[in-house]
Amino acid sequence: MTDQTVDPIVSPADIPVVILCGGQGTRIREASEKLPKPLIDIGGRPVLWHIMKTYGAHGFRRFILCLGYKAWDIKEFFLRYQENVTDFTINVAHGGGPQFHASLDLDDWDVSLVNTGIDSGTGGRLERVRHLIDQPYFMVSYGDGVGGVDLSGELAALVARPELMAYVTGVHPTSRYGELHTNEDRVIDFAEKLPSDGWVSAGFFAFRQEFLDRLLPDPEHFFEQGPMQDLAREGQLGLWQHNGFWMGMDTYREYVALNKLWADGEAEWKIW
Questions:
Q1: Diameter of the chain measured on Cα atoms
Q2: How far apart are CA 4 and CA 1, in angstroms?
Q3: In the chain, fewer beta carbons within 10 Å around the N or the C end?
Q4: What is the pLDDT along the chain (272 residues), one digit of tens a residue?
Q5: Going along the chain, which residue ranges are E strands?
């Protein structure tokens, strides 16, 4: 009998979710002049919160936030998370702590906030948090795109395919994102920021921990370039197809569109 290595059954609750929150949002200045991009709101809550709620709906609860631009603003949001998301009453004359209303259950999240540098690339940010990635698998997302992606399904697909090192979610937006050259359920070339009429990267990834060994020590390195392109050429990058709604909040026009969808009750990414 041939000895086979079988991946363990994995619970999303144990899996670290790395969210890249260090960018400056230079193309959305109208909404981000005083805020880091992940704190730009949709319906009064940061886009980062919406992303985390989507992961939470799939059972993920361990988050690692890679901070950079205006890191303190994001830290302060979570230091005062209960005040930010819950109604409360406070007596302004006598002081004391707020009396929180019991109308909202808080999310059971463990959130690690790590300052990974203002000018770091995405690979450099991952390198700075690798000591917190203590499971055989981990997830990665950018801090500015929302969609009703089956994130637990993407993780399960990776666990079931030991020949693959990673999965990337592919979508069909009418925009200007990185093109994925594909062959059925495999990505054969990972091309950043090229226009495409086919699958493009939605920025939701599932990785085996071994991927971290492919990162470069250069803090300005981007993992989407060398490492991801190498995986694609080696046949180790799977395509997780998402045919539903997805939108990145990269411009003021998209900011307005996402807020209108939320206000109209048409936010298809709201799966919680």
A1: 77
A2: 9
A3: N
A4: 334 444 556 899 999 999 999 877 666 665 556 789 999 999 999 999 999 999 999 999 999 999 999 999 999 999 999 888 888 898 888 878 888 886 667 899 999 999 999 999 999 999 999 999 999 999 999 999 999 999 999 999 999 999 999 999 999 865 554 456 677 778 777 665 544 557 889 999 999 999 999 998 899 999 998 899 999 999 999 999 999 999 998 888 899 999 999 999 999 999 99
A5: 16-21, 41-42, 45-46, 62-67, 88-89, 99-100, 110-115, 137-142, 145-147, 166-171, 179-183, 186-191, 200-208, 237-241, 246-248
